[in-house]
Specification:
Layout: H1 2-21, E1 27-28, E2 31-32, H2 33-55, H3 60-82, H4 84-98, E3 105-109, E4 112-118, E5 126-131, E6 134-140, E7 148-149, H5 151-156, E8 168-172, E9 175-183, E10 186-189, E11 192-195, E12 198-202, E13 210-212, H6 214-217, E14 222-226, E15 229-233
Parallel strand pairs: 6-13, 7-12
Antiparallel strand pairs: 1-2, 3-4, 4-15, 5-6, 5-10, 8-9, 9-12, 10-11, 14-15
Helix pairs in contact: 1-2
Length: 234
């Protein structure tokens, strides 16, 4: 084993010297330097693993099965990485069916985050947002001038309704409600994040469900409604 180790170290040393010597040329022995370097390291790792298996004294058949199992695991991991976006969409669709308001899909369009929402059974688009890191279920309400939290949701997000003055009238799809103004540390849905955004807290009992209003929606580059899908674009 010691002899093999010295041989490997010698080969690695020679390869590094060749790479340094051919740095300006861009290739070594007709192979691009980047690929040549990867070939050297992969070959060294394979040699060490093979030597370890041979010295273990295990039957060749058992070693072949173990190598096949590890190769299958590596292939699964590579496939998972290559199809990570498709798997993410699949997971989002499953979550959307189990948790109301969860995004149906998350994506990136021209470098900007997108979030796709599915219409709920009540006919409204719902969005599960994070306010100061706390999940809150909201209705997307383009008739609301501001994002409005119920007193219960506001308390979960770190605000104390008992200390607020509910003197501000806010317009919602259900009419006028009294609210108090606060500012979030962070408001997020999927990859769309807004910091220091003003929101309203409705007086206790004045609102049945929190609303994602126009102050957030108007901060987007755009949104589309296509049948039962709403796409928000950062």
């Amino acid at each position: 084993m010691n002899r093999l180790l010295w041989i490997l170290l010698l080969l690695i040393g020679v390869s590094v010297a060749l790479l340094m010597f051919n740095d300006s040329a861009g290739s070594t022995l007709g192979v691009e330097n980047y690929d040549f370097g990867r070939l050297v390291w992969l070959g060294a790792i394979a040699a060490l693993v093979g030597a370890g298996l041979l010295r273990s004294g295990r039957p060749v058949g058992a070693m072949a099965r173990n190598l096949g199992a590890w190769a299958a695991i590596v292939l699964v991991l590579i496939a998972g990485y290559q199809y990570r976006y498709e798997l993410q969409d699949f997971a989002s669709r499953v979550t959307a069916g189990l948790v109301p308001g969860s995004p149906l899909a998350l994506g990136v369009d021209d470098g900007h985050a997108t979030v796709t929402l599915d219409k709920a059974d009540n006919g409204h688009f719902e969005a599960r947002i994070l306010v100061n890191g706390k999940p809150i279920r909201t209705v997307v309400d383009t008739g609301a001038t501001s994002t409005v939290l119920t007193a219960e949701d506001a308390r979960a997000a770190g605000y104390d309704p008992d200390t607020l003055n509910f003197t501000i009238p806010v317009s919602t799809a259900n009419g006028i409600a009294r609210a108090a103004g606060v500012k979030t540390n962070e408001l997020a849905i999927g990859g769309i994040v807004r910091r220091n955004m003003p929101v309203m807290v409705a007086a206790p009992g004045a609102l049945g469900q929190s609303l994602l209003g126009m102050n957030f929606i108007s901060s987007l580059s755009g949104f589309d409604v296509r049948g039962d899908r709403m796409i928000l674009r950062d």
